[in-house]
Amino acid sequence: MTTATQPESAEPIEEQKWPEENLASTVDQRGGFYPTRLGEMFEDGRFVVTRKLGWGAFSSVWLARDRLNDRHVALKILSAYGSKRTATGQLTESKVLARLASSNPSHRGFPHVLPFLEEFTFESFAGQHVCFVTEPLSFNVPTLRSYLPNKVFPLKLILNLVEDLLKGLEYLHDECGIVHSDLSPSNILLRPFDLDEIIMHQLAEEPSTIYGFPHTVSPKDLPFHPVSSIPLPFFHKSDSGERLHWVITDLGEAQFTDKPLTRIAQSYALRAPEVIMGLEYGPPIDIWSLGCLMYEFIAGQWLFDPKRSDDIPMEIDHLAQITQRTGEHFNEAVLQNYALRKEIKDITGRVILEKFIPHLYCWTEMLENAKARNSHMGLVGSDFIYNKADSQEVEEVIKFIKSCLTLDPAKRISAKEALNNPIFEDS
């Protein structure tokens, strides 16, 4: 085990800038992370921690060996704060994962959602921690993209990815009654082809590392060291003939559809218009996010990038961009109701389109420009993916994206319907 470079600061441990999750934070500070140690055992020695894979707002994720079933697993350990929110029902991930695992394992979308194995809890100095045991996964979308030529996906890879996402969303929506509500590039991961081989190779060739702290910090103030995250890499043999396999993960914000949904959801650039306007919503918001993501994968930039200014609220900027770039107009009654609730004057479809953002240009032109810029896209690892898109193929992709971005959620294409589109026949 190696040690990262030590910071020079000798500030009190509570004031240190932690390199990843803040291990000194408390539940009252929305923290209470458990300082997991390499080699630590859970569940009476059944799970042995071997590597840190990543971390998030309410959890850290660790690679472990399941000695009972002789396999590698991932342990998602919630912070004490995240566990408290789970216990009070504010976070539903525990119930969501249980439903995903049991609803219909034979469904074509089942392999494309996070493979949940089991759950356990333990107590620490910070409080109770919930731990989800899942199958280990590899790179997410941004990490894989960083290895690509020009860091832009070839069209065939995009269609492969989107088809897998649609299968996963079909399972979530139709079989489980669940809205993901936080679909994003970082929540879409690859399933490794040779998991055990990759893990054994990585543990030998790229051992886990810890971050160093100043020598002036007393051991009584720092009885543990923060561990550096190293995600599992992804390898693909060009002559294997196997397509990539994508999985939807991170269901911490997922919601059940058996009751009205109105709270704010989704990251801003991917937020559906019904969410922006505070209307009741459902599974179609995931399809909206998918359409935005598909555009971003092709063009290499966000389709919607709302900004806040002194005279234009961010929500209005966002609605204006949506109007301009989809070519559709909002229902005037819906707009007026939204304006009244938000106490915004002079909001109509014409005002949104002409007054606020008159300089935006058509998103189909943006796609065409991106296609011309990236038409030379070549290889991923080897020659198993090549962008041979022609104008007709790009036009069909544009039509598909527009079907995902229909303003009226009742008319927006469903995951099941989308999977029948011919663009996925050869993906």
What does this structure look like?
The chain folds into 2 domains: 175 residues, Phosphorylase Kinase, domain 1 (2-Layer Sandwich); 247 residues, Transferase(Phosphotransferase), domain 1, CATH 1.10.510.10. Helices cover 32% and strands 14% of the residues. It is built from 13 helices and 12 strands. The strands form 4 sheets. Strands 2-3-4-5-7-6 form a 6-stranded antiparallel beta sheet. A hairpin with a 3-residue loop joins β3 and β4. The chain is globular. The N terminus is likely disordered. GO terms for molecular function: ATP binding; protein serine/threonine kinase activity. It comes from Clathrus columnatus.
Question: Can you write the helix and strand succession as a string?
Answer: EEEEEHHEEHHEEHEEEHHHHHHHH
CATH class of the largest domain: Mainly Alpha
* Count of DSSP-assigned helices: 13
Low-pLDDT sequence parts? 1-9, 352-361, 373-388
**Overall average pLDDT:** 84
Q: What is Rg?
A: 23 Å
The count of DSSP E runs of length 2 or more, i.e. the number of strands, is 12
Assign a percent range to the helix content.
25-40%
The number of distinct structural domains comes to 2
Q: Span between N and C termini?
A: 42 Å
CATH architecture of the largest domain: Orthogonal Bundle
Q: How do the helices and strands line up, and which of them pair or pack?
A:
Layout: E1 2-3, E2 41-42, E3 47-55, E4 59-66, E5 71-78, H1 80-87, H2 93-102, E6 116-124, E7 127-134, H3 141-145, H4 155-175, E8 178-179, E9 188-190, H5 195-205, E10 209-210, E11 246-248, E12 255-256, H6 273-276, H7 284-299, H8 314-326, H9 332-342, H10 349-356, H11 363-373, H12 391-404, H13 415-418
